Each structure stands twice: as structure tokens, then as C-alpha cells.
Amino acid sequence: MRLKRFSDDRYLKIAFLIGGVYDILLGVTLLVFPDLTASLLQITKPKPILWVQTIGIFLIFVGYFLLIATQDVQRLVFIGVGSSVIRLGYAALVIWAILTTGIEMGYILTAITDTITAIILLIPIILTEDVSWRQLWQL
């Protein structure tokens, strides 16, 4: 199935760029300033702090791969799909936590921004003329 709306890659590149920059900025902040990030998001400082820094490293890698994917978005479109799945998975975990145990507002805000970024990534992927559903699952 192909939806023919966008005939070039510029929207994909912009979406990948937005997602990559967002991830790298958040990842560096979590890695270098975990205490400041916790206080800005008004959440209890997680213990051990190594978990927060590990998430920061993970986000830096995801952002890096999104930025690399801007060089050939048609061939590397699966990176954007995978990034969106990770973001929506986090949002689902936050919703589950809200319904079962409660969660601090900082996590909810992060889930909202992740969901928005996932949508920013998915819309051009779905609407780009040269991207097929089959292509999304190939390496």
C-alpha cells in the first residue's frame, strides 16, 4: 500500500532531524545533568542514577542514528519507524503507570513530547510516495 502525497524526501529528512536533535538534547541532559533534569521535571531523583544516565546514552544513540538516516531516508526509513515504536511504547508504559500506580507529572510531560515526536516521524513516513509498507520492515 502506498499513499502518494509527498513526492520527495525533504519532509522525511526534516522529521528525522527533529527526532534526532530532540533525542540527543534529552540524552545529553540525562547523561550529564541527571540531578538537574530530575529537578526541572519535578520528579524524584531515581536511584541508582546510573539508570537515568543509561537512558541518556540510549537516547543519544537513537538520535545519532536518526541524524545518520537523514543522509538516505529511503533506505534507512526503518530507523524512523523503530524510533516511533520506542516512543509510543514509552507513552504506553506511562499510561499503564497512570492507571495502575500513579506517576509524576515529569514522566507524563516526557511521554507527551515523545508521542508528538513519534507522530512527527510517522506522518511523513506514511505519506511519502516512495516508501512502501514492505520497505518499512526490510533491512
What does this molecule look like?
- Helix 3 (49-69) runs antiparallel to helix 4 (77-100).
- The chain contains six helices and no strands.
- By secondary structure, it is an all-alpha fold.
- The radius of gyration is 16 Å and the shape is globular.
- The protein has one domain (10-136).
- The longest helix has 24 residues, at 77-100.
- 73% of the residues lie in helices and 0% in strands.
- The mean pLDDT is 85.
In summary, what is this structure?
This protein has 139 residues and is mostly helical.
Level of helix content? Answer: over 70%
Domain count: the total is: 1
Overall mean pLDDT? 85
Oligomeric status = single chain
Order of helices and strands: HHHHHH
General shape: globular
How many helices? The count is 6
Gyration radius over CA: 16 Å
How many strands, what sense, and barrel or not for the largest sheet?
none
The rounded distance between the terminal residues' Cα atoms is 19 Å
Counted beta strands: 0
Kindly name the structural category.
Answer: mainly alpha
Estimated share of beta-strand residues = under 5%
In the predicted model, the low-confidence regions spanning at least 5 consecutive residues are none
List the helices and strands and how they pair.
Blueprint: H1 10-32, H2 34-40, H3 49-69, H4 77-100, H5 105-127, H6 133-136
Characteristics:
single chain, 139 residues, mainly alpha
